[in-house]
């Protein structure tokens, strides 16, 4: 019998599968995580109470400083547009407004925010609501959907009745409106006065998944009624089967 060779080979170490980074080079994942800026640095630090504060060159890199300047630009745009429409409603931005605009620009681009705000401040439906950064962040998704819905419908017919309706402000743009569909009857839908009836009915009947439903995206409170008509129909069918048996 021959004893096994227990000699340890040390001159050729084992190499895992995959590309081997060159000497001094970091893997792609580590490099991307290292290079990603800390967007929190765009906000005023603790002890600073100026909502329009921006970091200096030595405080943050260029990307963070650019984001801070964008936040200040949006806050200034909101104040100037409100002051031009109703000077009594204009008020200085607060630290809460700055944080909300920071959250908004984390998900949306500056160009998109400016485009939608330009449209909203020309629409009587939204003028009285978008008075500060907090309200802009809260209603931004609804304003965006409202703008796209009106653009999809095209220009409205001119007429005294239509003009009067367009110039009448809506004091509660997200109030629930009762909507009926083929499977549900008079279910409250938030924003039902703005959204089309077909969208609301498709929402109630669950024609699309909740993740793709524009009515649920319009207002999170509508998630509770998504596909409620389908649920009611299934429940009624089960009750009918139990009664027959």
Task: Write a compact overview of the structure shown.
By secondary structure, the protein is mainly alpha-helical. The chain is built from ten helices and two strands.
Q: How would you characterize this protein structure?
A:
By secondary structure, the protein is mainly alpha-helical. It contains 10 helices and 2 strands, in the order αααααααββααα. The protein has helices at 28-35, 62-85, 95-107, 110-120, 124-127, 133-153, 160-166, 197-205, 214-218, 228-244, and strands at 176-179, 187-190. Strands 1-2 form a two-stranded antiparallel sheet. β1 and β2 (187-190) form a beta hairpin. α2 (62-85) packs parallel to α4 (110-120), α3 (95-107) crosses α6 (133-153) and α4 crosses α6. The radius of gyration is 28 Å and the shape is flat. It starts with 27 loop residues before the first helix and ends with a helix. Mean pLDDT is 79; it is low at 8-20 and 157-171.
From N to C, what is the helix and strand string? HHHHHHHEEHHH
Radius of gyration: 28 Å
Major β-sheet profile: 2 strands, antiparallel
Number of strands: 2
Distance between the termini: 79 Å
Shape summary: flat
User: Helix share of residues?
Assistant: 40-55%
- Strand residue percentage: under 5%
Residue windows where pLDDT falls under 50 for at least 5 positions: 8-20, 157-171
Structural topology:
Elements: H1 28-35, H2 62-85, H3 95-107, H4 110-120, H5 124-127, H6 133-153, H7 160-166, E1 176-179, E2 187-190, H8 197-205, H9 214-218, H10 228-244
Antiparallel strand pairs: 1-2
Helix pairs in contact: 2-3, 2-4, 3-6, 4-6
């Amino acid at each position: 019998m021959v004893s096994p060779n227990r000699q340890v080979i040390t001159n050729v170490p084992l190499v895992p599968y995959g590309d081997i980074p060159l000497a001094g080079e970091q893997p792609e994942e580590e490099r991307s995580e290292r290079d990603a800026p800390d967007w929190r640095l765009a906000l005023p630090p603790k002890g600073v109470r100026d909502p329009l504060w921006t970091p200096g060159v030595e405080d943050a890199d260029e990307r963070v400083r650019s984001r801070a300047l964008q936040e200040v630009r949006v806050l200034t745009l909101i104040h100037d547009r409100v002051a031009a429409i109703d000077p009594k409603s204009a008020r200085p931005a607060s630290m809460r407004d700055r944080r909300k605009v920071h959250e908004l620009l984390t998900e949306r681009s500056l160009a998109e925010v400016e485009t939608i705000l330009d449209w909203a401040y020309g629409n009587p439906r939204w003028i009285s609501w978008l008075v500060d950064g907090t309200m802009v962040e809260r209603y931004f998704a609804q304003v965006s959907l409202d703008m796209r819905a009106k653009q999809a419908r095209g220009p409205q017919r001119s007429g005294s009745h239509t003009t009067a309706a367009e110039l009448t402000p809506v004091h509660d743009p997200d109030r629930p409106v009762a909507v009926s569909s083929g499977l549900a009857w008079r279910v409250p839908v938030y924003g039902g006065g703005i959204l089309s009836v077909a969208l609301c009915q498709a929402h109630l009947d669950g024609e699309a998944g909740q993740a793709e439903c524009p009515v649920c995206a319009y207002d999170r409170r509508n998630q509770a009624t998504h596909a409620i008509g389908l649920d009611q129909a299934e429940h009624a069918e089960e009750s009918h089967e139990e009664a027959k048996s």
